[in-house]
Amino acid sequence: MVSMHTSPAELPGRGDAGGMNVSILAVARALAGRGVEVDLLTRASAEPTDRELSDGVTLRTLAAGAPIPIPKSRLVDVADEFGEAVATLVGRHAPRYDLLHAHYWLSGLATLPVAIELGLPFVQSFHTLGAMKNRSLGEGDEPEPEGRLRGEGFLVTQADAIVAGSSAEVAVLIDDLRAPPDRLWVIPPGVDTDLFSPTRARNEHAMREYLGLESERPLLVVAGRIQPLKDQELAIRILAAVHVTHGGAPLLVIAGEASDDAYLGHLERVAMDLGVAGDVRFAGALDRETLADLLAAAALTLVTSRSETFGLVALESAASGTPVVGYRSTGLVDSIADGESGILVDGRDPHEWAAVVSGLLESEVRLARLGVSARGHAEGFTWATAAASLLAVYENLVRR
After folding, report:
1. Which structural domain range is residue 209 located in?
2. Residue partners of 102: CB distance under 8 A and separation at least 6
3. Which DSSP symbol is given to 326?
4. pLDDT, tens digit, 9 for 90 and up, residues 316-326
5. pLDDT tens digit sequence for 122-178
6. 38 and 140 assigned to the same domain
7. Is residue 180 one of the residues assigned to a domain?
């Protein structure tokens, strides 16, 4: 599995790490549990190393470009060099590798030539698509470059199989990129229902103390990198509107690091202008255990993103027994079961969202019932199922 631009072992919510990192590592471990050896290949931002992450899963960082962090927008310049490093590694371990699976378009660009040269089946997962993102740009967001759009269009014509995470992604792949339907497979991600569980609510006091949160106030949570596409500004405006209509005055916890410092500054100014700066907590990127504690303790999770290919945080929140309020767009329609694991909102008017949030906060019975059904919804998504489905794709390609 190739993830050139971000290591699968990186902490989600930091740098370019997010749901894709979680998905790659989780499904790799689930495949290893079924007897498949998995090497995770990524670009080295320091000295190249090999590290066993768990039984059957090895992380290999490969030299390409300077051994320093390189902005994602400039990684295309070292894609050929990274591909050569992958070819060298694959050649050195031949015939150990049966198949290459590229994650994100940069990985595909770098390693498709390797697969062709060595005659290996080639699987492509995009996780996000330029065309999908360009439809939902936030204010100040730069559109995805033409080179990416062309690259993704080329990859769908060359891959032996394309693995999508949601029906919304499939629609874009077929309608915008003209992907061959007979090579498309929809395999939704799973969720770790042991880690993300309502039982972690017992850790609430320690978690609040660790994050410096008041002990009694209900929590609204947004989790993800701080950037215009995730639209944390909408969450702050929702909070301000809720304070007008709901006496409980919840806190808003924004978990994730800023990939755009200017946008972070903008968020702080918006919160100050709306009079809620004291009620917004920027928690930074959290380790998985602390995030699980936070989601279990939250009253509601808000998924305000303008576009999500699937929306793994919505599933993690549901598994924690915490309902989700999200934007009815793209992959969130797959990850949020409207009325079962949360509520989907049609527009982006903060007052409309605030009415939903206040209504749930004011009805403890309804909120509790929704939390129970949310957990049941999440239990239908497992990494074991995702791995079994992916393994069926792999075996079909290897046999051919």
Report:
1. 198-378
2. 2, 108, 110, 111, 112, 122, 123, 124, 125, 155
3. E
4. 999 999 999 99
5. 999 999 899 988 887 767 678 889 999 999 999 999 999 999 999 999 999 999 999
6. yes
7. yes
